[in-house]
Each structure stands twice: as structure tokens, then as C-alpha cells.
Amino acid sequence: MSLEDGDPARPRGQQVSGEVSGAPRLRGMGTAAPGGSRTEAMAESWEPGPAPGDGDVTPAGASQRAGQPEEALMRELSELVQKVVKSSSWWERHGVDISILACSFLLLPAGFLCLRSAQAIPFLAGVLTLGVVHHTLTVKGSHLASHNALTESKSWSKVWAIFFIELCSAFTVEQATYNHVKIHHGYTNVIGLGDSSTWKLPFLNRYVYMFIAPLAVPILTPLVALDLLRNVEWKAALRTLCCMFLGFYCHYWLLLHVSGFQSPWSALLCMLLTRSLLAHPYIHVNIFQHIGLPMFAADHKPKRIHLMSMGVLNLPRNALLDWSFGHSLINCHVEHHLFPSLSDNMCLKIKPVVSQYLKQKKLPYNEDTYSSRLQLFLQRYEELMVHAPPITELVGIQ
């Protein structure tokens, strides 16, 4: 199957980048994924060195490309990336992203103090500052922490995961890691597992979903987290509840005592405003980069390198989103899915190596613009977000 790149006239079977044509055939709409228990999912994270195959059985012709087994392709790419990682300094591997998070913390006092002003421009500057800082900590920080990409220390990785995911984002570490790292990354675009279906709300129409519903993300996130606490041990649930309360209360207290809000309702309204400032691109990015791309049944998915190259898409660089969400969620999403333990800055550094390798091997390297994907989802919302997506049938990877 090909990518749907926003051009209604483009037939299925062509990639957005134009590198690959004659792609696999599709079955009909609405086919369910057989088998595959969520509790049996395992993370497919990357460690330096050869990357083994995932052991799936694919139809005849899908296991080789130009005489090379898929395991050899992934191993060769891993070796190229490993050379880049080994030649990189600590600053490149972790320091750049830690500095971005540290700068965000340093901007917090300025944001809260700007909200004291009765003038519109300083007040809006405070809202913008706190909104960007909030999303940098909760999206970029939480994402890096969930993949242990902030530090090479396992103990500190756990600490940062609790801080960014539970205190800042009001979610539980165990469920965030399970759903994102083990399910979404382990089974990217596999129907019923990692197909991004958690972002679908089929009872909403396209305009409500794309432009109004994102405003509810700050409210829905802790509610979903509370519901998921039933699936974790009581100690983890208690820790999450304490961290969630502390995070919300600190934000609320600072708005009252530093920013000078006179009523609880005005402070809560400001909290909602700042926490939903970038909620629209947050929702859009999560669906643009996977939904509408090839989808697979659990028992007929390709091996790792094809699964990630076919089912993941990069968006162009954007200064605001690169800072707030990180390169691995915007313009290096393909690289991130292939090597998820690397930091945002390292994903950016290995991008030329990965893109050149995939194109050289005639593998998909999917890229499209934000506006093009938005147009596609508005035009084909019923097909992509309401009905079950079609399943890609691998009859041979050309």
C-alpha cells in the first residue's frame, strides 16, 4: 500500500516521497486483526549493535529485497547509526535536549510574573510562555523520559519518568510506557494494537474533532489516567495520585500567589488556556504521522524495517513544534521509530544517514507537509477516522 499524502488524485501505491511505487495490494475495509494479546506485547526498542528480526511470518516475496533478508537490512542500518552515535559527544547525545528542558524551567518565573500585568501584551506573553513551557515539559520531556533517552542511568531515567510523566503530565508512568513504548512502538500500524486508534473519536464530526475537541485534552488526560490506575499496583497508583495532585496544586498556587489571580475560577481558566495552547498540533501530529498510512494484520505484518518505513511519516521542521514536541515527534519520526532510544538531537543527527539508506535500498521514506495532511484528514475524515482502515496485504515488496 502507499501513503495517502493529501493529494486526492494520487492513487494508492505511491509513496509521498515518490521513492517507491508498485506497493502492496489492499484487502477490503473493516477487516479485523486476528490474534495478538495486548498483554503479550514486547517493546522493539533499539540498542547499539545488530538488530535481530522480529520473527514474524510474511507472505512469500516479502522477506527479501535485492537478495538481502530484512534482518540484514536492519542490521546494516543499525551499524551505520551506531557509528554516528559512538562518534557523538555527551552534549550531542543528551546535553542539547536537557538544555532545552532546563531553559523551559528557567522561563517559568517570567511567565507567571507576566500574568500579573493588567496590560494585554505582557499578559498574552505570559500565557504564550507558560503554554510553550507546559508542552515542552509534558510532551518533549515525557516522551524522552518514556524511552529512557534523557540519561544513560537507569535510576535517573526512572526519576525523570516520574517527574515528567506523572508530576508534569498527570499520567501514570507504567501505563504511559506500556501503551506508547511496548504497544505503539512494538506494533506500529498493526490493527488492534499499535494503530493509533486511541486517538479516534468516531462520534465527532471532522471539524469538532480537528478544531474543538483538542481544547479538552488537559481535562481528559487526568481522567483517562485515573481510569487506567485500576491496571497498576496500589503503590504505583498512590504515587501517581500524589504526583498528579502536587503538579496541579503547584500550578494553581503559583497563579494565585505569584500571578495575582483573585478568584479560583480565573486561575483554573488560565490553567486550561495555557495547558491547551498547543493541544491542536499535539492531536494533529499524533494522527498525521500514522493514520492513513499502510495498516497491517497482526499475523501478516512485515519485519521491523519495513513496518517502520511504511507506517511512519515525517513532517517538516517547525521552530515552535521542534522546541515543544521535539524532533523525534516532528521531522525525525521515522528515525525515532527505527531507533527509539535515541534523543531528539541524535535523531536529527542520524536523519541524513537513515533517509539516504532507505532511499538507496528502495524503501519508503515518507514525508509530507502539515497543511497537506490537514487537508487530507478534512477531506477523508470518514474513511480515516470513523471507519476501520484497510489492511495492507503484502504480496511482495517491490
TrEMBL record:
One of its GO terms (molecular function) is oxidoreductase activity, acting on paired donors, with oxidation of a pair of donors resulting in the reduction of molecular oxygen to two molecules of water. The keyword Transmembrane helix applies. GO terms for cellular component: membrane. Residues 1-71 are annotated as: Disordered. InterPro entries: FA_desaturase_dom (IPR005804), Fatty_acid_desaturase (IPR012171). The chain crosses the membrane at residues 207-229, 236-254. Keywords: Fatty acid biosynthesis, Fatty acid metabolism, Lipid biosynthesis, Lipid metabolism, Membrane, Transmembrane, Transmembrane helix. It holds the Pfam family FA_desaturase. One of its GO terms (biological process) is fatty acid biosynthetic process. Residues 123-367 form the Fatty acid desaturase domain. PANTHER family: FATTY ACID DESATURASE 2, FATTY ACID DESATURASE 6. This is FADS6 desaturase. It comes from Malurus elegans.
